[in-house]
Amino acid sequence: MKNQSIENKLNRNYDHQLMPSQIRVFHSGIQFMIITLAILFTVACTKPLELTPAQVLTNETALSTDASVKQVLVGAYDEMALDGLFGGEVLRNSELFAGEGEVVWVGTFEAPREIFNRDILVANGDVEAFWAEAYNCINICNNILSALDVVNEEDRARVEGEAKCLRGWMLFEMTRYFAQSYEPGQNNTQPGVPIVLNPTIVIDESSTPARSTVEECYAQVITDLTEAESLLPESNDVFVDQMVAASLLARVYLQQSNFENARDAADRVIASGNYSLMPAYKDAFNQVENTKEDIFAIQISEQDGENAMNEYFATASNGGRRDILIEDAHIALYPSGDLREDMFYTSQGDYLSGKWKNQYANIPIIRLAEIYLIRAECNQRLGTATGAAPLDDYNKVHTRAALPAATAVTLDDILMERRLELAHEGFKYHDVKRLKGIVGTMPYNDNKLIYPIPQRELEVNKNLVQNPGY
Q1: pTM of full prediction above 0.85
Q2: Containing H/E element for 344?
Q3: CA angle 220, 224, 230 (to 5 degrees)
Q4: Domain residues of the chain, as ranges?
Q5: 25: Cβ–Cβ under 8 A, 6 or more apart, which residues?
Q6: Residue 25: in which H helix or E strand, if any?
Q7: What does residue 431 show for φ and ψ, rounded to 5 degrees?
Q8: How far apart are CA 217 and CA 41, in angstroms?
Q9: For each of the chain's 470 residues, which pLDDT tens digit applies?
Q10: Closest CA to 72 of 5, 135, 131, 18
């Protein structure tokens, strides 16, 4: 009964017994996508529902009622919580890909080693899993959007908003990893990833889409997230809500260097008053329930869930593998008295991040501290004070770390604060790309600083084109 405990944690108490928990999309050696259903059994688990052939998704059984559509929606969250997505690897690999000099991979797994060394094979397992699981989640969302007419009218906008938010989010992450950076002021015709907006039910020509441009990908991401923000309620328990969509828009616009829109989206989140910084920095992490600082977190339980951040960053005594060590050069970045430095601990003379010590803790994905720093950076760049002066937002985060309040602030100060505050949470690679930095001797736009399209995808979809250098 895999995934049942996570679904219980996410469950909206729908009154049903037999419901599909998710729609899976995976690859065979012959076809691009095959749809199957994972079925929840009765409480006694004694009478499984008979399945139709694996290549056919029957909406009559899977998406025919309000309750079934909502349960499939829970499956989208379950999908995004997998190891290959926000269960850890999307975050972990950002730190590995651009972390030379600040982190080091010492584990035995080859796929993350290739990413850390920026020498990725086209059959890299992490890259394959990311591609497949992201499109799994997108396809679940597309199937939900195709069945909105059976959703109760009072919930329809919320369900639509959740599906569009998750779909846009997945497309954003894929575009950032598989495509060259968005360049402000340019046409951005460089290849992105396929934009898939319709459910895959049967295998046909629509199952082998070509890559859209980066410009088209960002436009679709913004459309999905903007519509989601307008459809979602301001609060939605542990699910995505209006403020999650606005936070994601702030990230997207920041990645584009669209500072005005990023500032305004961040300001909407802060102005909602729904969140506040935890008084102690350490209390923003290793929590089994969402904190008041969490805008969105992956839900983990003792029975189920994949906290891969713990697996790779923590010691064996804390449930991990001790695969990623923190270099002295990173520790040296923290000023004297910065309590964030206390989050690191040592094992066999090496530093490890203490953000991921609890293997059963939720995984924070969007924290209020990030949103304060987005607003501060954008206001600083624009010479504005929307919501608050950049200095005020900077000091909210800075003084929480027990550092004295600054009397003046520069853009470099804000960027360093971001680097320290969000260290080892999945921001490193994306910040290097948008700030046009370097990794080792590689410039931000080096062909080896994006993922290859998985070879198996190229073999089953002749419309895909490989990235240069692979």
Answers
A1: yes
A2: strand 344-347
A3: 145
A4: 74-129+155-285+364-439
A5: 33, 34, 35, 132, 135, 136, 139, 140, 200
A6: strand 20-26
A7: -70, -40
A8: 38
A9: 334 345 555 554 333 322 233 333 333 222 223 333 332 222 233 333 333 443 344 555 679 999 999 999 999 999 999 999 999 999 999 999 999 999 999 999 999 999 999 999 999 999 999 999 999 999 999 999 999 999 999 999 999 999 999 999 999 999 999 999 999 999 999 999 999 999 987 666 667 999 999 999 999 999 999 999 999 999 999 999 999 999 999 999 999 999 999 999 999 999 999 999 999 999 999 999 999 999 999 999 887 767 999 999 999 999 999 999 999 999 999 999 999 999 999 999 999 999 999 999 999 999 999 999 999 999 999 999 999 999 999 999 999 999 999 999 999 999 999 999 999 999 999 999 999 999 999 999 999 999 999 999 999 999 999 999 99
A10: 18
The span from the CA of 422 to the CA of 330, in Å, is: 13
Phi, psi of 368 (to 5 degrees): -60, -35
Do residues 448 and 442 make contact, with C-beta atoms less than 8 angstroms apart? Answer: yes
Tell me the two tokens of residue 316.
Answer: 């064996």
Q: Which amino acid is at 347?
A: S
255: DSSP letter: H
Q: Is residue 357 within 8 Å of residue 286, measured between CB atoms?
A: yes
Q: In whole angstroms, what is the distance from residue 461 CA to residue 152 CA? A: 38
Residue with tokens 């590689």: 442
Q: Encoding tokens for residue 12?
A: 């909206």
Give the residues across from 60 on adjacent strands.
none
Cβ distance 38 to 7 under 8 Å? no
Length of the chain: 470
CATH number of 74-129+155-285+364-439: 1.25.40.390
In sequence order, the 6+-apart residues with CB closer than 8 A to the CB of 441 are none
Tell me if 79 sits within 8 A of 136, measured CB to CB.
yes
3-state SS assignment for residue 324: strand
Classify residue 15 by burial, with Cβ atoms within 10 Å: 0-12, 13-18, 19+: exposed
Q: What are 57's two structure tokens?
A: 């998704």
The C-alpha atoms of residue 168 and residue 165 are separated, in whole angstroms, by 5
Assess contact for 254 and 435: CB atoms under 8 A: no
SS3 state at 15: coil
DSSP 270-317: HHT------SSGGGGSS-SS--TTEEEEE---SSS---HHHHHHS-GG
Cα–Cα distance, 449 to 438 (Å, whole number): 10
pLDDT, position 39? 24
